[in-house]
Amino acid sequence: MIRFDYRRPTSIEACLELLDLYQDKAKLIAGGTDLMVELRADDEKLEHVNMVIDTTHMAALKFIEVEEDVLHLGPGITHEEIWENPFLQEYAPFLCEACHSVGSPQIRHAGTIGGSIGTASPASDPLPPLVALGATVVLASVNGTREVLLEELLLKPYITDIKANEMILSIDFPLLNPEAGFGFVKLGRRKALAISRMNVATYVELDETGKAVDVRIVPGSCMPTAVRISEAEAMLLGQVPSYELHQAIGEKVAEEMIKVTGRRWSTPYKEPVIASLVKRALNQATGVKDDD
Amino acid sequence: MTLNMVVNRKPVSVEIEPYARLLDVLRTQLKLTGAKEGCGIGECGACTVILDGETVDSCITLAASCEGKSIETIEGISDGDQLHPVQQAFVEHNAMQCGFCIPGLVLSGKNILDKYPEADRERIVEAISGNLCRCTGYKQVVDAIEDAKDKIDE
Lengths: 292, 154
Known about the structure:
Chain A is an alpha+beta fold and 292 residues long. In chain A, 36% of the residues lie in helices and 24% in strands.
């Protein structure tokens, strides 16, 4: 176990001052479901850490609010709280599904959405739907606040653009049409406690003629970070959803994945599986009959 | 540093290291050895306790974070010699072999019935999905929790 000192600031201002003082020697703890494991394993990326700043008590980080069609999600909200929230179940059902598939009940009771962003695991479940929602992250430091698109904040596996003296204050996204289609499909080794081998979040909005006017496809555990695959989204835009089209789009996503990651030992497995998951997530979002 | 919390309805105050895990404080300082260390990384659920009404893995819970919080362990759920209905049902259904995972399974079962007294089988199965048992399989466990649901109602 890495040994560290501990502070429990009672306000955001006090927390920011501590972060500014300790910089990269400090880590924020929220649920601790990732950090505690890494600290205990003497993870080398934490070897310089000697201070843990606790945010679990901060009520100012726990909110789910709507203001002028923008949802503000507090970083201290747990995965379980997202899953159980009736408003989110209506407006972002794929985010609820994704949060519900994280770890186990014990992990979901402790783990937070802000922690998921901070950890930036390439196998994260909540990140693909948050990217599909077009979420922006509000970051604060002693010097002020800034907003960054989540998709741009995620730089590499486990690496974000969050500076050492910054903390997440809010995760914001414009509300999408709740009548449109949402999909989330995950492949894990078992239902509970499975870290995603791969997952996909999809959103498809149709016009009155049944043609797609807004398409978002975000695979997880395929690319280094969760990103929208615009080349694949373009294939559905202006078209009427169909099984065959979704199949072709799935193959396109697999092709884009290989362009970025190259052919690896896992590619013969990942290529057909991601194609199939994308097809299924699009079928789910559009009500097209899926394979039995 | 001093940690103040309520454990099994009694206020306790203990001197801890800032990097102590809740599991170690419970087992070595408070001598509550019902919570077990299995995997140590939050996957097996043998260390499950109830923290402010929700199950957590105490092996990955920072003890210092529990300041002012209420913790329930397996030692605190029976009433004297009277077992909790979930414990009693585990006995009646032979829902255990080696027993290592049982404190965690019982607490996950108790917690879901506290939160959802009408929990159906599907919800019970999900509630124990973070508790691994390598002896019994899970049928007797789920049967026991379902059975306890009716006993709590009585």
